[in-house]
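Quick one: co-fold with zinc ion.
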Amino acid sequence: MQADSSAQRALLLIADLETQMAQLRHRKATLPEHAKLAELASKRGQLSEQVIASQTRLGDAEAEQERIEADLMPARARRERNQKMIDTGAVDAKALQSMIAETAHLSGRINSLEDTQLEIMQQIEDETAAQSRLIAQRGEVEAQMRTLLGGRDASGKELDAKIEQLAEQRAGLAQRLPTELVALYDKIAQRVGGAGAAELRARRCSGCGLELDMSELKKHANAAPDLVLRCEECGRILVRTEQSGLA
Ligand SMILES: [Zn+2]
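Sure, here it is.
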């Protein structure tokens, strides 16, 4: 292929713009906010699990409290009924004896249930407080995440704008070059996963680093300036400049 030497050199500008764009894309992908956000998301997940565990404990304690209440109600009613009968003397001596014994037993049971009830109430109070702290912590983590997301989006937008600007420059430049040359460049760029052209600099392909041997250098030195050269190693378009070392 033949192309004006100035068009060939313009390919190096295109390659440079692409490198700048790749660097900006890399910066966007590795913004420090990404790592911090991942860390906070994991922290938030842990706190949510702790909140759920706390809710389960609270639910169990409340159910236990209801069970105790359900046991206490009939025991209290029975004790009250017994006490009335004892007070009014509505039973005979023998029945009175057993009723007094039963009332004493009921009182013991009621006391024990009431003690347990107090313990559970304390548990519920403690668990409710612990849960509020966890929810507050999670709220703080979420607030930090929102701040970071805002920062990440702002940085991302800024980088996107710069990338877009470079892409426009590249498109404008490519438009002024021969279509065939740009098509060849793009084809090579796609294959090598990078720039499709490289400077022949100090007798080396600056794309792959291969040093050209003497016969090749001689061939290139004698080639017409508008002949498009290719690197034998990587296939990139080899662009001659004053730094090529061909003279
Ligand atoms: Zn090469």
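If it helps, The mean pLDDT is 95.
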